[in-house]
Amino acid sequence: MKVAFLGPKATFTDLAVREMFPSFEAIPYMTIPDCLDAVMEEKTDLALVPVENALEGSVNITLDYLVHEMKLPIVGEITAPIKQHLLVHPNHKENWEDVEIIYSHSHAIAQCHKFLHSTFKGIPCENMTSTAAAAKYLLEHPDNKMAAIANDLAAKEYGLTIAKSNIHDFNFNHTRFIILAKDTFEITDTHLPQKGYKTTVMVTLPSDRSGALHQVLSAFAWRKLNLSKIESRPMKTGLGNYFFIIDIEGQMDDVLIPGAMAELEALGCGVEVLGSYPYFQIEKGSE
C-alpha cells in the first residue's frame, strides 16, 4: 500500500503517516493538490493531508479541493499534537539570534507569533510549502543567516540545530489530518486506538428561504445528533453564496442520519456525504 503526504520528509504530515501507517510506503508530494492528484491518478492508494489546526483553523485549500475539484471520500481522520522549534544550520548555532530571515509554513509562523514578535521583531518571515521544506532550504544554504520553524524530526532529517525549543504560543496545539481514498477503504493496519466515528456532510441552503440554517440545525438537534463542527465556505459563485461543512458525531446508520438528510432535502437544501469514517488520536506529541 502507498500513501501520499505533504512533503518533503519530516513534515508533521509525515509524522502522522508514520504513526498511522508504519508498514505503508509513504511518498512525499510538495503540495496538498499534488497529494490528491496522486490518489485520483492511482499513483497511491491513499492521501493523508491536514484539514484543521487548533490555533489557525481550517486548511482551506484541502476543503476547497475536496468540494470543487475532486470527489475523494474521507475514509479516516487522525489528530496529532504539534510542537514547533526554531532550527538553524550548525554553522550558525552560536549566533542564532542574528538571523536575517525566518522560513516556515504560514500556519507555523502564525502559531509562533508571540515568540517571533518578542525575539525577532522586524525580522521578515517567508512562507514555504511546509515546515520541512523550510528546514531543507536551510540545509541547502549553509552560509545564509536564516532560521526555520519545524519539528525535531526535521532537525534530525536535515542535520540542523534546535536553537530554541517549543516556541509555539500555546501548548494545546493539535492538527487534524484526513485520510482520502478513491474507493472504499477500511483502516485496519494501525496500532493507534480508535476514538470513535464521524460523518461529514456538505449542505447548501436554498437561496430564498429565511431561517434555513436554523432549520438545518434543528433537523440534527431533535434527532439528538451531536455536531462536532460546522463551517461555512464560499461556493465561488458570487458574494454571499456559501455552503456548510458539518461533522456529525457517529457512523452513518440506517435511520437517524439518512432521516436528517431527507428532511434537509425536503427543505430545498443540497446534501452530499463526504465520508463516514473512524477517527484516531496520537497521544504522544512529536517534539
From TrEMBL:
It catalyses: prephenate + H(+) = 3-phenylpyruvate + CO2 + H2O. Its EC number is 4.2.1.51. SUPFAM superfamilies: ACT-like, Periplasmic binding protein-like II. It comes from the Bacteria. Pathway: Amino-acid biosynthesis; L-phenylalanine biosynthesis; phenylpyruvate from prephenate: step 1/1. GO terms for molecular function: prephenate dehydratase activity. Keywords: Amino-acid biosynthesis, Aromatic amino acid biosynthesis, Lyase, Phenylalanine biosynthesis, Plasmid. Residues 201-278 form the ACT domain. It holds the Pfam family PDT. Residues 2-182 form the Prephenate dehydratase domain. InterPro entries: ACT-like_dom_sf (IPR045865), ACT_dom (IPR002912), Chor_mutase/pphenate_deHydtase (IPR008242), Preph_deHydtase (IPR001086), Preph_deHydtase_CS (IPR018528). This is Prephenate dehydratase.
